[in-house]
Amino acid sequence: MVTVIVTFFILGYLCIALESVLKINKAVPALLMCVVCWTLYACGFPGMDTSGRLLHHLGETCEILFFLMGAMTIVEIVDANGGFYFVHDALATTSKRKLLWRITAMAFILSAILDNLTTSIVMIMVLRKLVDDHNDRMIFGGMIIIAANAGGAFSPIGDVTTIMLWIKGMITTGGVISQLLLPSVVSVVVSALLCSMYLKGEIKPAVNTDNSAAAAQTPGDRNLILFIGVGGLIFVPIFRILTGLPPFMGILLALGVLWLVSEFRCNRHALLCESSHLKVTTLLSRIDMATILFFLGILLAVATLQETGVLTAFGQWLNEVSNGNHYLVTGIIGVVSSIVDNVPLVAGCMDMYPIAATGDFAADGVFWQLLAYCAGVGGSMLIIGSAAGVVVMGLEKISFGWYLRRFSWIAFVGYCAGIAIYAIEHLLFF
Fold it and tell me: 267: burial class by Cβ within 10 Å (0-12, 13-18, 19+)?
């Protein structure tokens, strides 16, 4: 029965990887894979408390899902109220190379605070207001992918994979920031230097046709919403340290405060809010529920592999083959994450190895920190390897082949540079 479960999991995984070919949203195979795998597990192991184990894993999964939904809603509120207008103002320039570095820095910083998916959407929307030439935008878009993934790798709230590792206690806020910040910076700087070879000359500015209600907001209103929203996201790790409660409680607190302030503003400016759909109840409809359902399906499907012992056995085999070289193991995982989705990949790795009291598998150990870096940054090597890449691919109509020729090698060089810096850090300081 274990073989049958693994077979269905692989088939579902292939359907997810071939989403663009099959023209089927990846949430569909993820949900079907989840149900089929758990059904087979229930039928194949009748003596087990299948329902109890399923509810146990569902509880752990919902911690991640509620966190993501809260964060996504906060970003939607900030964006709808024009909170990200400062990004446009900060990036404005006529030089292509200057814009490249400004976009890189902004995407890197925002991704650490928001997440790489949201950051990519925000940056592409702003980019369209700055650059008219589509070929130039594709180059800038490629760099946005690399910068967003690198920025999310060193932050506990910057990427779904780091959120997962953080919630499970495999990395800590202070540990991951202090030890992965420099490798992430080096990886994105090296990539930006290489990317700048493609750019020269001046930018043809885009015609600004923004007549949205967000543009009508006063700077004071925009900054207020931005401060509360982004400040709330930054406060989440602090909330966890102070209370010991799961991170999703902190994100719900931040959302509740922002929602309250937004309601007060709407009551004061009822006409504006009604005409521009700034009410939070309206903005909730913009949440990408397909992505949420994808995470639900894939994480619960991976849980069946944990229950059957497949992941533990694979982890032991991988350790034996690599002779315990965790740099090699995580490096390979990073390359694989550019081919398949890094969320189930990291979920699988988390279930392969238990947290140890000391050593590389301890909290903030070498393995977990490298896993956070490699799974995040490694996803940039192919455009389909990360949520940021997929969304930029769709928004700017970038082909798989174009990115492979132009950016895959750039991302790989930056990826390797970051791993080298991490190794040097540990050799000299840790």
Answer: exposed
